Amino acid sequence: MRVFFAADPPPRPRNLNVRHELFCHPTLEAMITFASMTAVGMKKRQLEFSSHPGNLSLMRSFVRKFLDNLPIPERDRTLMVLGVDEACTNIIRHAYELRDDQLIALSLEHRQDCVRMRLRDYGMQPAAEALRRRRDKVVRPGGLGLMMIRNAFDQVDYILRQRGTELVLTKRIAA
Could you give the CA distance from residue 55 to residue 50 in angstroms, rounded to a whole number? Predict the structure, then answer.
């Protein structure tokens, strides 16, 4: 997992086959804390990590620290963190078919009137019908995560790239 600021050119990961044990090292948590402390006042942060489910905890921590000083109610912050976590889980499960060595890039940006989060993967693209809202209120497996993401954010856009997908999540905030 690597942390870099928007002013730096994003480095490309060299070896994404590193296993979970290396990602859970306490030094990594210290790196995220340091990045959050040194970036106070910065409006954009980025994080790249492999698609191992063990990295989701550190990703959630990274997002939480970014949202901490923003004028967003605690309930909304929690829903946003859960929404990004669900989106990453969907990338791991569907785009990468549970492979744990693939790249996920997360970009967080605080604008004057909103917070924008972008998730980028290079895996299989979702089918258009899988992204549509459910019309019925019947609870059944599949698609509930998308409903949670849509409830956490004001705007959810899927951009199908030549290779992979970019998910743009936008939450309006009081100016």
Answer: 7
Q: How many CB atoms lie within 10 A of CB 78?
A: 14
Q: What domains are defined for the chain?
A: 2-172 (3.30.565.10)
- Where are the extended beta strands (E) located within 27-160? 44-50, 103-110, 114-121, 155-160
Q: Percentage of the chain surpassing pLDDT 70?
A: 67
Read out DSSP for 126-172? Answer: PPHHHHSPPSS----SSSHHHHHHHHH-SEEEEEE-SSSEEEEEEEE
pLDDT of residue 133: 65
Average pLDDT, whole number, for the chain? 80
CA dist list (Å): 48 to 3, 4, 70, 107: 7, 9, 22, 9
Residues sharing a CB contact under 8 Å with residue 148, sequence separation 6 or more, in sequence order: 79, 82, 83, 86
What is the predicted pLDDT for the residue at 16? 46
